[in-house]
Each structure stands twice: as C-alpha cells, then as structure tokens.
Amino acid sequence: MEELLIVTTGGTIDKIYFDDKSDYQIGEPQIGRILEELGVAFRYTVIPILRKDSLHITDADRELVRATIAAQPGGHVLVTHGTDTMVETARVLESIPDKTIVLTGALNPARFRGSDAEFNIGCAVGAVQSLPPGVYIAMNGRIWNPERVRKNVSANRFEAC
C-alpha cells in the first residue's frame, strides 16, 4: 500500500456530546488523531467530505462520496461512516472498479473511553491492505460483504443477513 486514502463522512465515531442538553454535534474527524497516536507506519491522507449522522446522508451525499473516491488515484480507501446507513453507502461504492474500499465506524464516539473506534479502525486498516479490490465493511471484529450484512439496531451490532 503506497498511501491510504481516508474519506470521512461523520457518524458516531466523530460525535461530541453535550451533557447539559443531551445533544450532540459531529466534530472534527478523529481518525487522523487516532492513527497519529498509534504511530502507524504508513502514509495517509484524510479527506473530510461530510459531517453528518448517517441517518441524514442522502443519495446526493452518497454520490459525492463515490465520485470523490473514484477521482483519487490510490487503490486503498478507508471510509469512516455512521453505522445506521453504512451498508447503503457501501452498496453505492461497489460501482467503483479496481479499488479496495473498507467502511468502518463506531457504535460509541471515539472520544469516549471504551469506544470501539480504535479497534474498528485497526481492523479496517488491516483489511484494506490485505483484501482484493472490492467493498467491505469492518465492524465488530469481522469483515463483512455489504450484500450480506445488516445492522441489528436492537442488539447494536452488525450481523449476517
């Protein structure tokens, strides 16, 4: 892998909560900070495209993500995305040939102690380096085919469908 392209769209991984209002905002992308703290031994570029909860991502937003990735020269792409509509975005990205694209996110904000963000990012980085071209989802310690996975909202995890 020459350089990893990271595209961020928001989602829980980047959320900042305000206790006094029980409200949240999507903050700065956390993945660059996480990779820097971990001292990774590869080059990466972060392109923040959206700062949205994935429930608010539109078809036009998905097309923007697809077009941005398709226009980049690199063949290895990691996308951080909210978990609720990650599968839908992954399916749109399947039209991009000759790139290994892995989507990941978090069920708890990266700023929270005990968040799954670092673990999911680590799985995604390993996957994007080792899998053949295609689109994958890295969540809950597994690599999923977007055509065969769904988020179980009540159990708050991804599972085969």
TrEMBL record:
L-asparaginase N-terminal domain residues are 4-156
**Active-site residues, record numbering mapped to chain:** 12 (o-isoaspartyl threonine intermediate)
Q: Which Pfam families match?
A: Asparaginase (PF00710)
The positions annotated for binding substrate are: 54, 83-84
Can you tell me which residues the record assigns to a coiled coil?
none
Which domain of life does this protein belong to?
Bacteria
Q: Which GO terms describe its molecular function?
A: asparaginase activity
Designated name of the protein: Asparaginase
Q: Which organism is it from?
A: Pseudoxanthomonas taiwanensis
**What taxonomic lineage is listed for the species of origin?**
Bacteria, Pseudomonadati, Pseudomonadota, Gammaproteobacteria, Lysobacterales
